[in-house]
Design a protein that fits this description.
- By secondary structure, the chain is of the alpha+beta class.
- 60% of the residues lie in helices and 12% in strands.
- The chain is built from 7 helices and 8 strands.
- The strands form 4 sheets. A two-stranded antiparallel ribbon has the order 1-2. The protein has a two-stranded antiparallel ribbon with strand order 3-4. The protein has a two-stranded antiparallel sheet with strand order 5-6.
- The termini are far apart.
């Protein structure tokens, strides 16, 4: 079955309805009547989790004796005292305390805020670059007759992997930048320091990880006009959703980003420490002085270390130097 559509330019074009069956079925498998019950379950679960955490927090506060903790009584951070160049009399404590002027604090905050805006702009630029890459790969593969069927999926998956790579890199370096800038602003108490650092990292992580998903879910394919009258950007038709809607591509991007992030986090937090811990223990064993050496099952190697040249004894299947 096919339909004909005539645009403002008078060009007739045929659009096969059968082409959207597969993507429509995929979209229905992710967006159907069961989605309503899933949303209701998630709403109830989130509310239950928050209330359970409040109860746990109150229990821990009672055990630790900090339920009546007053932030005004918190100790001043040592780095705050070290980096302040002026002192001010505090009538509450009746003593002079280190003090940072409002002008100096505001100038540092304004500088940090401007730099954060620049970084968010870089995230937008990277997002636009991924969109351009997706469109370029799709057009290049669509011109190959043998790849037309897989052009959309290949471009979407490769763009998702590229987006995940940029997200991980930006997240890693922004974490170091956020710590450095928060230290530079020189907050007085540890509570102020941690709250500011948490908000900055949270805002950036949300913007960094989910901006591409928001674009696909709410903006992609919404400004493409209609058949025969498509707006062009630099002479190229704007990026469109695959037949059947963007829900399938949104699910693909979400799976790549969330699963890829979890895999990288697990590998970096568990696998790499195990590898380096085994390597370190092996090196420690090699550095240990062995008094009795069995020539039949051991071999000798001279290893130069900071304390001088010692005898490194390792099993044939053991240490690798």
């Amino acid at each position: 079955v096919s339909t004909q559509s005539t645009g403002s330019s008078g060009i007739n074009a045929e659009y096969g309805i059968s082409k959207i069956c597969v993507t429509s079925q995929m979209a229905m498998s992710m967006n159907n009547s069961a989605t309503l019950f899933y949303c209701i379950f998630m709403s109830v679960w989130v509310a239950y989790f928050l209330e359970s955490w409040k109860r746990k927090q109150a229990l821990l506060g009672h055990i630790w004796g900090v339920l009546k903790f007053d932030e005004a009584d918190e100790q001043v951070r040592p780095t705050y005292t070290q980096n302040c160049d002026s002192w001010k009399y505090n009538p509450r404590t009746r003593r002079h305390e280190p003090y940072m002027t409002k002008r100096k604090r505001f100038s540092r905050f304004l500088t940090t805020f401007s730099l954060i805006l620049v970084i968010l702009a870089c995230v937008l630029i990277f997002g636009i670059a991924v969109i351009v890459y997706d469109l370029a790969v799709y057009l290049a593969l669509f011109n190959v007759s043998s790849m037309q069927k897989y052009a959309r999926w290949f471009s979407s998956i490769s763009a998702g992997i590229m987006s995940l790579t940029l997200i991980i890199i930006m997240s890693k370096y922004y974490g170091k930048f956020a710590v450095y800038m928060t230290d530079w602003e020189n907050y007085k108490t540890q509570v102020e320091y941690e709250n500011t650092l948490t908000i900055r990292r949270y805002v950036f992580e949300v913007f960094n990880f989910y901006s591409s998903l928001v674009y696909i879910g709410f903006f992609k394919g919404k400004f493409n006009g209609y058949p025969g009258n498509h707006p062009l950007v630099f002479g190229v038709k704007m990026e469109d959703c695959p037949p059947g809607g963007c829900i399938s591509e949104l699910a693909t991007q979400m799976a790549i980003i969330l699963a890829g992030k979890q895999f990288i986090f697990t590998f970096s937090q568990f696998v790499i420490p195990i590898i380096f811990s085994n390597k370190g223990s092996c090196w420690d064993r090699c550095r240990t002085k062995v008094e009795e050496v069995d020539q039949g099952s051991y071999k000798k190697k001279a290893v130069k270390i900071s304390m001088g040249t010692r005898l490194c004894v390792s099993r044939n299947e053991g240490c690798v130097l």
